[in-house]
Amino acid sequence: MVKPVVSHQGIVLGFDFGMKRIGVAVGQTTTCTANPLPILPAKQGIPDWQQVTKLLKEWQPVALIVGLPLNMDGTKQVITAAALGFANALKQQASLPVYTVDERLTTVAARAQLFEKGGYRHLQQNPVDSVAAQIILSDWLKNYN
């Protein structure tokens, strides 16, 4: 992965793209920490752009990070093009730098993390997509600094 160049430190938002749900996380480049936020419902990969605008106004990020779904061998999946389309739409909507990050196995890691915290019930009651976004964002933050 090429290390991204962000002009200054600050808040970043991460997204775990999905056709029905888009996980969201917020992070801080200074502390390299990330936390999950509520998911964004999507219809065929398209979120309610008013909700996205609200997130951007609330958090005022310096950059946006989008998980790029790839096959285990690194090749593109059918959904890869849709995730890239979402990343491009975000860039146009927000006028901010948008970086994509390999998201292989983040959903598996998110499920394991939630299960470890509270078993099957905790896994069912928490948004896996936003925890996956948190993992995507945490990975980016580690590579950024």
CATH class group: Alpha Beta
- What's the gyration radius in Å? 14 Å
For the biggest β-sheet, the strand order reads 4-3-2-1-5-6
- Helicity level: 40-55%
Strand content: 25-35%
Shape: globular
Described by strand count, sense and barrel closure, the largest sheet is: 6 strands, mixed
Structural class of the secondary structure composition?
alpha/beta
Q: How many structurally independent domains?
A: 1
By CATH, the architecture is named 2-Layer Sandwich
What is the arithmetic mean of pLDDT? 81
String of helices and strands: EEEEHEHEHH
Low-confidence stretches: none
Number of strands: 6
Distance between the termini: 13 Å
CATH superfamily: YqgF/RNase H-like domain
